[in-house]
Amino acid sequence: MTDQNSFPVSMDPKERELGTTLAPKFDSHGLVTAIAVEAGTGAVLMLAHMDEKALRLTLETAQVHFFSRSRGKIWRKGETSGEVLNVVEMRVDCDQDAILLVVDPAGTGAACHTGRKSCFYRRVVPGKSGFELSTPDQPPLFDPEKVYKS
Amino acid sequence: MTDQNSFPVSMDPKERELGTTLAPKFDSHGLVTAIAVEAGTGAVLMLAHMDEKALRLTLETAQVHFFSRSRGKIWRKGETSGEVLNVVEMRVDCDQDAILLVVDPAGTGAACHTGRKSCFYRRVVPGKSGFELSTPDQPPLFDPEKVYKS
User: Fold this and answer.
1) CA-to-CA distance for B115 and B104, rounded, in angstroms?
2) Residue B127: beta bridge partners?
3) Which residues contact A133 (CB under 8 A, 6 or more apart)?
4) B9: which of A46, A62, B129, B132 lies 20 to 30 Å off by Cα?
5) How far is A86 from chain B (nearest CA, A)?
6) Strands (E), chain B
7) Could you tell me which chain B residue has the CA closest to the CA of A118?
8) What are B71-123's pLDDT values in tens digits?
9) Contact across the interface for B92 and A122, Cβ inside 8 Å
């Protein structure tokens, strides 16, 4: 990459781990993984991916942007549903291939497209023949069929 | 996959989202993303990946196993450092391509290979020319040079 505004691509691993330069390590698809947790409670809301542009837009606007792998495009979280995530704090992990977003959810507070607060609404539990999932343990806060009208 | 113990591969998307069948959606590399958070505090400790075997070992032993993308093999978290993560609860997200591990850390409580409690020990902060990282805001709990002797 030659864009002068690009993040550094190659970097000494120790410097990437302990230094003060933001140098995200994008994978072979140009993505890093991002986790959103709710400010205050720390509840894990969702996990998604960011390309370089989504990361820059998130930094510049303080509203979470992701890259949708299924749709192949940038997506401002909440652009359809109104369930915007405002960034309170952003952190990176040791090798800079993961981003932690501490967010203040707008809208009804439902980060999941199913209408639930968190995407992690089912537990893995022992079942009759191996492991299965509990039924969703969070109520929908909005009706996805009304919110995502085609 | 024909192994009778394998997880279901194809499934109606609605059933995968709202049903009670554990049907992890492994990516083209055969991996799902896993986040470990500390039981009690909810602190995000680390993010890594699991293949089907690592997921099964985690379920069967209640100790976190990952698949190391760099080393190309299964890795029992803490096998070298002693920083084992005991599973208190496992959750899946809506489309079952991400796993949330609620864990009780053993050892010194340092999940990160740098010796820190969490891998997310740096904040993204405004700098002189764009964004940079804060210096690590967590002390190392162990000395990685002593723990990871070659």
Assistant:
1) 17
2) B130
3) A122, A123, A124, A125, B19, B20, B21, B22, B92
4) A46
5) 15
6) 32-38, 44-50, 65-68, 73-76, 85-92, 98-105, 122-127, 130-133
7) B93
8) 999 999 999 999 999 999 999 999 999 999 999 999 999 999 999 999 999 99
9) yes
Kindly state the tokens that stand for A75.
């997506």
Strand partners, A65: A76
Domain ranges of chain B: 25-147
Give the CATH number of domain A24-147: 3.10.20.810
Please give the pLDDT value at position B149: 79
Assembly ipTM: 0.94
B44 contacts in chain A (CB < 8 Å): 35, 37, 42, 44, 100
B25-147 CATH: 3.10.20.810
| Confidence category of residue A120, pLDDT binned at 50, 70, 90 | very high
Q: Which two tokens stand for residue A98?
A: 């993961």
pLDDT, tens only, A7-16: 988 899 999 9
Give the position of tokens 């084992």.
Answer: B84
CA-CA distance, B94 to B23, in Å (whole number)? 11
Q: CA torsion sign, A74 to A78 to A79 to A80?
A: positive
Rounded to the nearest 5 degrees, what angle is found at the Cα of B114, between the Cα atoms of A24 and A32?
Answer: 20
